[in-house]
């Protein structure tokens, strides 16, 4: 918990200007659409930090909950605010990431949505002897993308990982490419080994 808090404030100061920029378009958007912003400052700021990080890593403001896919049409739909927002607000009261929600959602409703989101990401990871096998995670029904995807599994692993090297098994070349972009942005050493039906990515921190 302490490590996560320190990480949050480190990122907050690192992305302070970008977060301000995100807050500006978000304020305009919520007014135009009559949506509410997640009332938890920490949760909404965290999502604004992740949006900024997505923009810096992948060049576009992709949804912070999903890494880009190899389907350009789907990627376009995943630019925040994404094309799924209206549908998801109707279904859960908030969008998938719980950044935006219905204006009449009460505290319990926001909490239920944030809990739903957290439960999707707090799943046991398949990490053994420095190898993280990211395959086999459930798929989001609207986007048909894994939750948590390889990028989020890496982030979760690093919250409590103390080794200098990590290997990751990913199903697709796109995931391997995404990890290369993350490694380049974060200054990790990266190499990739194509196998018969998966890719092995080696990272050094
Ligand atoms: S789910 Fe929410 S945060 Fe994610 S892209 Fe859609 S609107 Fe943005």
Give the SSE map.
Layout: H1 2-14, H2 16-33, E1 36-37, H3 41-58, H4 72-77, H5 85-92, E2 100-101, H6 107-121, E3 126-128, E4 131-133, H7 150-158, E5 165-170, H8 173-186, E6 189-194, E7 199-204
Parallel strand pairs: 4-5
Antiparallel strand pairs: 1-2, 3-4, 5-7, 6-7
Helix pairs in contact: 2-3
Bound molecules: iron/sulfur cluster.
Question: What small-molecule ligands were found?
Answer: iron/sulfur cluster
Report the total helices.
Answer: 8
How would the global form be characterised? Answer: globular
Q: Any idea how many domains?
A: 2
Instruction: Quickly give the CATH architecture of the largest domain.
Output: Alpha-Beta Complex
Q: What is the beta-strand fraction?
A: 5-15%
């Amino acid at each position: 918990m302490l490590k996560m808090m320190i990480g949050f404030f480190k990122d907050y100061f690192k992305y302070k200007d970008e977060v301000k920029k995100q807050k500006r378009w978000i304020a305009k958007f919520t007014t135009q659409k009559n949506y509410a912003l997640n009332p938890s400052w920490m949760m909404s700021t965290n999502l604004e930090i992740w949006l900024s990080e997505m923009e810096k890593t992948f060049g576009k403001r992709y949804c912070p909950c999903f890494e880009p896919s190899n389907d350009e049409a789907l990627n376009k739909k995943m630019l925040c605010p994404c094309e799924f927002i209206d549908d998801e607000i109707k279904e859960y009261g908030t969008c998938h990431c719980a950044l935006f929600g219905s204006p009449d959602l009460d505290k319990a409703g926001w909490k239920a949505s944030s809990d739903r989101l957290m439960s999707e990401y707090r799943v046991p990871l398949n990490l053994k002897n420095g190898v993280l096998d990211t395959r086999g995670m459930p798929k989001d029904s609207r986007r048909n993308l894994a939750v948590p995807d390889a990028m989020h599994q890496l982030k979760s692993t690093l919250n409590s990982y103390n080794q200098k090297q990590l290997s990751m098994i990913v199903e697709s070349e796109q995931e391997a490419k995404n990890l290369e972009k993350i490694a380049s942005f974060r200054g990790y050493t990266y190499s990739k080994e194509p196998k018969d039906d998966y890719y092995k990515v080696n990272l050094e921190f």
